[in-house]
Amino acid sequence: MTRGPQPKPNAIRRNKHPHAQELTAGAQPGRELPRGLGIKTAGAKRFWKTWAEAPQTATWIETDWAELEITTKLVDALYQGDLRHAGEIRQRTAKWGATTEDRSRLRMRIEDQDQDQDQDADQAPAEAYDLDEELFRLLSEEQQDS
Fold first, then answer.
1. Which of 30, 47, 123, 138 is the most buried (most CB within 10 A)?
2. Which of 24, 110, 38 is nearest to 73 (CA)?
3. Contacts of 140 by beta carbon, 8 Å cutoff, 6+ apart
4. What DSSP designation does 4 have?
5. Alpha-carbon distance 69 to 92, whole Å?
6. 3-class SS at 92?
């Protein structure tokens, strides 16, 4: 048994949170991966490209980009076999709104993409194959070490 009055059938939330963000879908211009970071793996380069062009970066300031640089170094170490960084990477990307749940918690909403962009997402980029090969190699080495 619930307490209080029964909600109206057409109830609509009318109060908007003051810090809610509404972002437009689509790639941002982003930034180039700094050569000084010394990133070696295709997975870390893909990580940088994905986040540098994400809708969230439209509101980023210099300190956010510095965090992305540090996190990309951690991702590079992860792809080189240092798996202890996985938890730290997950925590850092959650603060940027990596998953639907993260964006919901951050009150971040991204407008729907056009159909043209959905069709482009169906086609796997050439870099994805390099990433798959790299992951396969990493996992094969790990099993051989055991």
1. 47
2. 38
3. none
4. S
5. 11
6. helix
Cα diameter, the chain = 63
Q: What is the pLDDT of residue 57?
A: 82
Predicted local confidence at residue 111, as pLDDT: 77
Q: Are 56 and 95 contacting, i.e. CB atoms less than 8 angstroms apart?
A: no
The domain spans of the chain are 61-112+127-135
- State pLDDT tens for residues 78-116: 999 999 999 999 999 999 888 888 788 877 777 775 544
Q: Which of 13-27, 68-82, 114-128 has the lowest mean pLDDT?
A: 114-128
Residue 95 token pair: 């603060």
Assigned token pair, 47: 């990580």
